[in-house]
Amino acid sequence: MTQSFRMVTARDVAEIANVSVSTVGRALADDPRISARTKSRVKEVASRLGYVGNLPARQMRGAKSNLIGLMLPDIRNHFYATIAEALSDCCSTNGYQLALSIANDPETEARHVTELISARAAGIVIVSTAQPKRETRDLLNNFPHVQLLRRIDNYNSAWFGINDEECLCEGTKHLLELGHRRIAYIGGSRELSTGSARRTGFRRAFQEMGIDRSEAIEIFGPPSYTQYGANAIQELLNRPNPPTAIITGTIRVTQAILETLHQMKISVPDDLSFVGFGDAPEFKWWGPGLTTLCMPIEDLATTCGLWFLHHIDSGKHTNQQHSSVAKATLTIRGSTAALDR
After folding, report:
1. Residue 318 exposure: Cα atoms within 13 Å on the Cβ side
2. Same domain, 278 and 175
């Protein structure tokens, strides 16, 4: 037998509290025209019945939305999970609620942006796809939003990111200083602003140190596709002249390579030096400890969230060319060593 449920209405609350329906709405909105005693009675009845107010209806009466959309391409790694948690805490502390959306292609991204705006969210924090649809750009450019990590130039909004080029340059220089020349960079899509900047940083390290880049290897692929990283490292190590060092440009690729190296019984750093990307908790304990590019993810997400919520609360425009760059740092552990010539 199927049990049916009926949603509790404002009329139900009004009947039990012995007030009008309009008084229920005003009491729950903390209207100063309603006495404290009536507010208390209405709230007690509403809580007991499990009454949830109609947000669109409240907004039509002038109430402000407390919903903030967060659009991420992936949630299966420490990097984006940390962003979601930090932004959720930031929103909760400031009277907002975070709604998480996963969109890794332009079609899904367009649909989710439309739905968040239709739900009358107060604003959207977005880690964009590489080539968003025109309708997505048009919608966002007329709606409060802020870009996080990835940057789309024709979005008219602030951007909060990481010094992608500089950190990859620093990690690559570390390997060059250890004597490595046949270095493989396994990065994310070059169509993404982050992927393009990290590739530039990899190449810049050779240039600044005056070292020929002819032995360097570059491989690019989808940053959230784990198998891509596993396939890339297997192909590299099966070459007649494999690389002596690896540096990666995404956390999912880093995780896949760590698993594959363990399965292939590759000794790090004896057989191969490895500089990873991101600093998931397990990276400290993997093998000899992973030398990695540590991202200040929590600080980045919190700074972005506070700036965005302040602008929403104060009615300031978020469609301004504001930029904030958090600095990643190279943390040296046991996975890199001087090349044994």
Report:
1. 27
2. yes
- Model confidence at 27, pLDDT cuts 50, 70, 90, reads confident
What ranges in 209-272 are assigned the alpha helix state H? 226-237, 251-263
Domain containing 152 equals 67-162+298-326
Residue 57: partners with Cβ closer than 8 Å, 6 or more residues away: none
Tokens of 34: 């309603």
Q: Residue 201 region, left (φ>0) first, then alpha (ψ -120 to 50), else beta?
A: alpha
Does 155 map to a domain? Answer: yes
Instruction: Judge whether 337 lies within some domain.
Output: no
Same domain, 44 and 75: no
How many beta carbons lie within 10 A of that of residue 132, not counting itself?
21
Residue 42: give its domain's CATH number: 1.10.260.40
Tell me, rounded to whole angstroms, the distance of Cα 255 from its chain centroid.
17
Tell me, what's the pLDDT at 99?
94
Kindly state the helix (H) or strand (E) to which residue 329 belongs, with its residue range.
strand 329-331
pTM for this predicted structure: 0.81
Scan for tokens 């208390």, then name that residue.
Answer: 40
Beta bridge partners of 185: 218, 247
Total count of domains within the chain: 3
Helix (H, G, I), strand (E, B) or coil at 9: coil
Examine the pLDDT at 226 and tell me if it is beyond 90: no
Q: Tell me, what CATH number does 279's domain have? A: 3.40.50.2300
Q: Where does residue 255 rank: exposed (0-12), middle (13-18), buried (19+ CB within 10 A)? A: buried
Residues 169, 158 share a domain: no
